[in-house]
């Protein structure tokens, strides 16, 4: 096996989406990158797994190989992270700028829904996509529809730099409550606007001074994403989210990045100033005889997911999720082959929304006739997590198979990395999309490289040997 | 998609199919060199063997009315530490598994890659085995480490096309790709061929394709 170079500009640990995007971008910019993962597959927490791996991951591998009744195991690509891409979001922008779209195909998510009421009185309705749809929405009464239309039209024409469009509000300091009040919106409307369009998971944003601007940007992202392809604001890669890190890893490799799966980091080396400056590692395939291939290399800096530095991260929350396999679409959703359904916290007496993300064979993630729905929320209690997800389960109808583990801790780095030269990413959070992931990517890039990441025109002027 | 001229493409009434082709084999056996010979009719003795070819396409006109377009994926070096992603094999219609006829161990590696393809790729994938660097042996027969007949017999048993090639002199390179094209099922071409016709099944993310579904969005 070839020798590993004695020095790399950047050593990246973990092949989650965040790490792979950064690896790709840095390689394109001419950095010499070594990218390592202890697993035998790409994606880490952002991988998509087959049905056998899923049963095993959740400890459901009872003697009778229960996955066998679900057809060919490799027809399944089940996400571990319940997320979708905003079609006008930043990840889409990065995919296009880096040309990673060459390796992936995307399809729309067929619908975006929101629940009103709870228990036996719960109804499910389409989230209106624009001012016109607001007028037809069953979510509001006649007069409220007009107010909602006025509000959405204003959001669309709002210009941050033009105070004439600010309706006399001082948007740098005002709260979203003041904006809602200005348009006279009812509580139920505020609920679906804030939770199913602005995609806030709690109501904390309403009374925070200066948050109105953020809320308006979020609603615009929703509306513009919706307008892009029509059915929902979301798109999704064929064969599952696990394709995303693989695509960016390929980008990195094409620009010279070196990839090593099945590789354990044995030691991080530090210089006298306490900054990380190298690694010792061992590559060894599963089941391989002998000590494996040991190597040592210098590293200009280290980028890593939280699992590589448990002592340098803190727990900032717990995500609870259940992966459910269905044999039918979700009731009352127009037989959509894929969707997001949000249950706002206020409707079911919680502090955090419950999300349902569903995909199916339309996205090549399972055989025909199956649907994969992930129900998730932020844990509010220390026990009975199953009950916290119950309002979500009620939406699904009969559930063929349910995979639910203990709550997943969400990690964030304790330090920025400037002191120890180790730049750590955050866990994939509970939001329904990748906007916070791309924020983290930009943040890590800024911390590690000392300047802003600009993806537009990234590949221009970076000629490959044979392009 | 790369905006490359489709040589041999004809409008109207003709058959046109696009196929994904993947390259496999040990590092430095000449995978990228074979493709660069096929696509650009170039060869470089001092190529840095680590840098990959991003994405190359080449068309072959099989007859007056039939054109086959290859969308060629290079390993980009991810084979070096056995870190190829499932994405690489996904929907591959055909594969060229390369070994170096002057390196004894490279045929065993090629056999391992064929096994990997049978495990990971489509069942009906067409595989060609290419024993590369034929020019070295032509110049000095003592350099041959793998008898052609050994490889040919293995190829027969495993159901593979087989050629000895030289990316340097272009020997058998076009023949190799043409043989693959002839073996591909043109009538039931896979999803890749639909894609080539201009309508990908999914959505097109490029900015110019947006805003076609009604203009209810705001301009931010
Ligand atoms: N003599 C000779 N050298 C070759 C041939 N094909 C490739 N090479 C050389 O072998 C080295 C590795 O080639 P490359 O295409 O990068 O191999 P890859 O790693 O399998 O993609 C380069 O130095 C090439 O110039 C060939 O047919 N004949
Ligand atoms: Mg190569």
Automatic annotation (TrEMBL), chain A:
GO biological process, one term: vesicle-mediated transport
Positions in coiled-coil regions: none
GO molecular function: Rab GDP-dissociation inhibitor activity
InterPro entries (UniProt xref): FAD/NAD-bd_sf, GDP_dissociation_inhibitor, RabGDI
GO cellular component, one term: cytoplasm
Family (UniProt): Belongs to the Rab GDI family.
Name of the protein in question: Rab GDP dissociation inhibitor
TrEMBL record, chain B:
Pfam families reported for this sequence: Ras (PF00071)
Predominant cellular place of this UniProt entry's protein: membrane
Keywords: Cell membrane, GTP-binding, Lipoprotein, Membrane, Nucleotide-binding, Prenylation, Protein transport, Transport
Subcellular locations according to the entry: Cell membrane
Membrane-topology descriptor: Lipid-anchor
GO BP: any one term: vesicle organization
Entry's Gene Ontology molecular function annotations: GTP binding; GTPase activity
Biased composition (Polar residues): 209-220
Region (Disordered) location: 190-220
GO CC annotations on file: endosome; plasma membrane
Keyword Transport set for record: yes
Protein family per UniProt: Belongs to the small GTPase superfamily. Rab family.
UniProt protein name: Ras family-domain-containing protein
Taxonomic source organism: Lineolata rhizophorae
């Amino acid at each position: 096996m070839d020798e590993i170079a004695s020095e790399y500009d950047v050593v990246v640990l973990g092949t989650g989406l965040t790490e792979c995007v950064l690896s790709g971008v840095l390689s394109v910019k001419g950095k010499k990158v070594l990218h390592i993962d202890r697993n035998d597959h790409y994606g880490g927490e952002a991988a998509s797994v087959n049905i056998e791996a899923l049963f095993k991951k959740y400890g459901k591998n009872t003697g009778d190989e229960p996955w066998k009744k679900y057809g060919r195991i490799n027809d399944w690509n089940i996400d571990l992270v319940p997320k979708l891409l905003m079609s006008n979001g930043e990840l889409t922008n990065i995919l296009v700028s880096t040309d990673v779209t060459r390796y992936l195909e995307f399809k729309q998510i067929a619908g975006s829904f929101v629940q009103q009421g709870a228990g036996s009185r719960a109804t499910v309705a389409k989230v209106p996509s624009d001012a016109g749809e607001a007028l037809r929405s069953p979510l509001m009464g006649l007069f409220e529809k007009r107010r909602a239309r006025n509000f959405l039209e204003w959001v669309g024409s709002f210009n941050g730099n033009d105070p004439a469009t600010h309706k006399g509000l001082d948007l740098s300091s005002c709260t979203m409550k003041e904006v809602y009040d200005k348009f006279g919106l009812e509580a139920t409307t505020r609920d679906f606007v804030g939770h199913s369009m602005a995609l806030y998971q709690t109501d904390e944003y309403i009374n925070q001074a200066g948050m109105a601007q953020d809320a308006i940007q979020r609603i615009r992202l929703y509306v513009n994403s919706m307008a892009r392809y029509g059915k929902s604001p979301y798109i999704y890669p064929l064969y599952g989210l696990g394709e995303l890190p693989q695509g960016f890893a390929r980008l990195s490799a094409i620009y010279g990045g070196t990839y090593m799966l099945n590789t354990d980091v044995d030691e991080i080396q530090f210089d006298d100033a306490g900054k990380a400056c190298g690694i010792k590692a061992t590559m060894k395939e599963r089941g391989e005889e002998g000590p494996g291939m040991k190597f040592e290399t210098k590293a200009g800096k280290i980028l890593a997911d939280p699992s590589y530095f448990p002592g340098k991260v803190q727990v900032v929350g717990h995500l609870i999720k259940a992966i459910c396999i269905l044999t039918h679409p979700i009731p009352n959703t127009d037989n959509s082959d894929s969707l997001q359904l949000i249950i706002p916290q206020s409707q079911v007496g919680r502090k955090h929304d419950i999300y349902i993300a569903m995909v199916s064979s339309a996205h090549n993630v399972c055989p025909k006739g199956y649907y994969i729905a992930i129900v998730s929320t932020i844990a509010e209690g220390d026990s009975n997590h199953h009950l916290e997800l119950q309002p979500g389960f009620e939406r699904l109808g009969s559930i063929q198979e349910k995979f639910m583990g203990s709550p997943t801790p969400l990690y964030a780095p304790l330090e920025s990395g400037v002191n120890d030269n180790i730049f750590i990413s955050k866990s994939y959070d509970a939001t329904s999309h990748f906007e916070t992931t791309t924020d983290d990517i930009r943040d890590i890039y800024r911390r590690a490289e000392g300047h802003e990441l600009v993806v537009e025109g990234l590949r221009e002027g970076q000629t490959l040997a044979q392009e | 998609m790369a905006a490359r001229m489709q040589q041999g493409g004809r409008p109207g009434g003709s058959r046109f199919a696009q196929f994904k082709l993947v390259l496999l084999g040990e590092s430095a056996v000449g995978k990228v060199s074979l493709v660069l010979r096929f696509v650009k009719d170039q060869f470089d003795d001092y190529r840095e063997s680590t840098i990959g070819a991003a994405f190359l396409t080449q068309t072959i006109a099989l007859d007056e009315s039939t054109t086959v377009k290859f969308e060629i994926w290079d390993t980009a070096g991810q084979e070096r530490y056995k870190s190829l992603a499932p994405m690489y094999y996904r929907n591959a219609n055909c594969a060229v598994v390369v070994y170096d006829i002057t390196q004894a161990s490279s045929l065993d590696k090629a056999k391992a890659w064929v096994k990997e393809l049978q495990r990971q790729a489509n069942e009906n994938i067409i595989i060609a085995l290419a024993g590369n660097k034929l020019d070295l042996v032509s110049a000095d027969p003592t350099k041959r480490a793998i008898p052609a007949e050994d490889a040919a017999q293995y190829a027969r048993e495993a159901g593979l096309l087989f050629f000895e090639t030289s990316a340097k002199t272009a020997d058998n390179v076009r023949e190799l790709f043409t043989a693959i094209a002839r073996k591909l099922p043109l009538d039931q071409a896979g999803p890749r061929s639909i894609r080539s016709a201009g309508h990908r099944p999914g959505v097109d993310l490029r900015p110019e394709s947006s805003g076609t579904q009604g203009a209810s969005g705001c301009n931010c």
